[in-house]
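To assess whether the prediction recovers the assembly geometry, we first specified each molecular entity separately, as shown.
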Amino acid sequence: MSALYPLLIIAVVLGIVLNLAGGLIWVERRLLALWQDRYGPNRVGPFGLGQVVADSVKLFTKEDWIPPFADKPVFVLAPAVVVATSLLAFAVIPFAAGFVIADLSVGILFLLAASSLGVYSVVLAGWSSNNKYALLGGLRATAQMLSYEVFMGLSLMGVVIMAGSFRLGDIVEAQRHMWYVVPQFAGFVMFLIAGVAETRRLPFDLAESESELIAGFHSEYSGMKFGMFFVGEYIGVILISAMLTLCYFGGWLGPVLPGPVWFGLKTMAFICLFILFRAALPRPRFDQLMSWGWKVLLPLALLNLLVTGAAVLLLR
Amino acid sequence: MPTSAAENYFPVLLQILIAMAVAGGMVGGSFFLGHKVRNRIKDMPYESGMVPTGDARGRFSVKFYLVGMLFILFDIEAIFLYPWVVVFHELKMLAFIEMVLFIVFVLAGFFYIWKKGVLNWAAEGNDEGKDAVRILSHDQHAA
Amino acid sequence: MSTAVLPDQLVSGIPQATCDGIPTYWIDRGQIHATLRELIEDVPQPYKMLYDLTAIDERGRRHRDGQPASDFTVVYHLLSFERNAYIRLKVALEMGHLSLPTMTDLSPAANWYEREVFDMFGIVFEEHPHMERILMPRSWVGHPLRKDHPARATELGPFLLTDEKQDAEQEALRFRPEEWGMRRGREGTDFIFLNVGPQHPGTHGVLRIVLELDGEEILDAVPDIGFHHRGAEKMGERQTWHTYIPYTDRVDYLGGVMNNMAYLTGVEKLAGITVPPRGQTIRVMMCELFRIISHLVWYGTFAQDLGQMSPVFYMFNDREIAFGIVEAICGARMHPNWFRIGGVAQDLPAGWDKMFRDFLDYLPSKLDEYDRIVMRNKLFQARTKGVGGCTVEEAIQWGMTGPNLRAAGFGWDFRKKQPYSGYEQYEFDVPVGVNGDCYDRATVHVEEMRQSLRIIRQCVDNMPGGPCNAEHRLTTPPPKAQTMHDIETLIHHFLSVSWGPVIPPGEALAAIEATKGNNGYYLVSDGGNGSYRTRIRAPSFPHMQMLPKLCRGLMIPDLLAILGSLDYVLADIDR
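The predicted structure of the complete assembly is given in tokenized form:
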């Protein structure tokens, strides 16, 4: 097989993901506005769609400021890490049967590994800024990571037991008769919670929490480096939504419409759910998040795994 | 279908390179496009517009460091479960019983640290056990 | 009151007659501490709350009949809840001996009040733990509320901020932990000293709080106020009685006419004016509408402080509807400047009752909806229950009033206990909390909105007829009926309109249940067309002073929950 085919797929996937991430700025602002009885951006272009372009141009031409008191190499590296790692995770996401950059047999493990690298960018940004708000934000990101990472992987294992494979393509194909959200509902809820925490969005935006820490870990960031945290955040949202679709809602499977369309629609629905969370929920304190993750969700995830194992044994 | 590991992971390598290129391009692009103006106020760390007392490089206390250590333990224990779930279909009952035992041991340790209070690291003022029920009473006072 | 030991038997001092009937005594400088201790701790039905502490520069007074000689008079107001009565103590000080013993050992609330008196008058309180300026910058020269201090910027030289001066000012604002008896760390750990504010999205204005942090745990907090200080009290001495009304609007800028009410109740006490029933009812109706408006802002921003984005937009929409009514009646929105000495600026416009009735029908279902999305939200409850609580005893010691005091479990409402403007005629309940924590403060606030709606409905249903302004020569604008008969009354009318009414000499305290707590105006008239001394006792001031006590041992997110629940406005703290 030539190297051109994967390159082509990579180009298509990156094109879709980056454009969608940019477009999500508009989607999120318009949806929030809709739910909050106001208009949102509606001036630039039709329906305000040009806002995306305007924002990108603005961010690119803003001053590329690196604080003299910061740890400069780390400060520059941090926003690059979040974009690179979340893009990396898309290597194993199948948009349709066979349409995937690398169909790895350890797909889910690769996904978990790549997406959890993102937290480093937050911690590094918080530490390198040499700003107290940023430091506290970085610490909170650490606390948050400690509390959801363990059960995040465990909550997915129920799906893996049922499908018998880490390969995402196999997991989707195994849902031909029934979406896993039905037998694995507990796992779905836990993974959704962990997923929101992973993307660091409300209600789990503790590292940023603007009413407490001004802008938390990215207090000292400006211009495109600031923008990259947002791009990274949106790519993360797309990623988690895609994972939810693949593992619990039958991926590209669906009647009438072609596979990629189904996949796109389901993913978009989850993206909207993420935005709805942001519109609706207050944020917990981080010790509450932590004790909830450890005392409730971790035992539940283990229990879910055992019950799933027992059920699979009995029903075979 | 790719067969060898090299063929399998070659696209991943490509993806890594391209993702890094995209991220680098964004940082570099804004470096060349943006203009630069510096002044002394801008070059101060932002702390609500005040001159900071001390910087963010002290030896601060991370109260949840014990949880951080436990995290490493439990994450490793979780990783033991990952291979088990894929071979579960082949090993059946044997694997199940062994895993029940494993998880029971893990949970036993877990409840031990829970009872030891390692997971309650919040500040003293925030203890959860406080009475959370109350009734809003009305009292009608004659003027 | 009848069974109580009368104040005359409690204190030995020279009594003074006042317009408000509050027992007033001149106490010797050497006796004041003992007398205060007696009143706060020992007497039956003690005067537990230090309600206010301020001073008067008497050097320009003309009418001080029977009062002891004094250059500067320090005035203490104590409040006894059991007696439902105030007592006022005065201490005469001579220029050159401007010092007094502190009373911070008797009441923690005295700390900031004494600092304010020092800042404004240069009177030193001996053995005060931190005798330092509180409202003015440390680099300020002079004491603003002294009569010889300029009242206008134009009386000072031109202002120039050079880089060097800016650096010096910034440096003066840098927090030095040692000054506050704080250490920079303990074995192996450095404490973080974090400035929260003045430019911070969570402080609701230019408030600065310096936190001493161990990780995220708050060891101590030092609120630094004064960034919003505009000299409202000084302006009160510069404006006429009438032209000061718009300035009161801006003290609690969310409370609108509520401020007019507090100020004018005081002026009317001095002038001996009784507002006719229609005027009183209109005032009550507008005040309660503004209570709702203010509480809606509090509700939305509180939810926002806890990270909940949306409620604030819904609540501001409702507030817009209420502002529509305010605009139709007053012509302005946030600062209506609409009450007048002896009444209100205009009678109600045609169709006013329909607007109110629509609003009364609209809001209750909305409040129920907000209960579902905010008050019953589990995350909201987790963030607010058991956080930042205090007991009734502590609340009284620290001078807490209003919804915050009621949340602690003490059903004290000045509308019920010391009715003004005809509040005794209305049926409404006083919601009371149990724990005094953030959640209780929230429930009390929310329930108060429902009670305000009840009061407004009673006003709308029973609006009396007749004039809305008093038939009194000091009413503004003055009654015109007699002016057409003789030159004498015509001249009086002309003077009253162009210079404003001349209020007879005297002094009075008027305290009302404002949106955020007890708002009191202590006015001293020297027989001029303006006030000699205007003291504004704002509820947010003691509430903010209590913040360190409420947040010690908690974490940064809790601090924001407490700030949000306290319902303060920076303009109300700094005046």
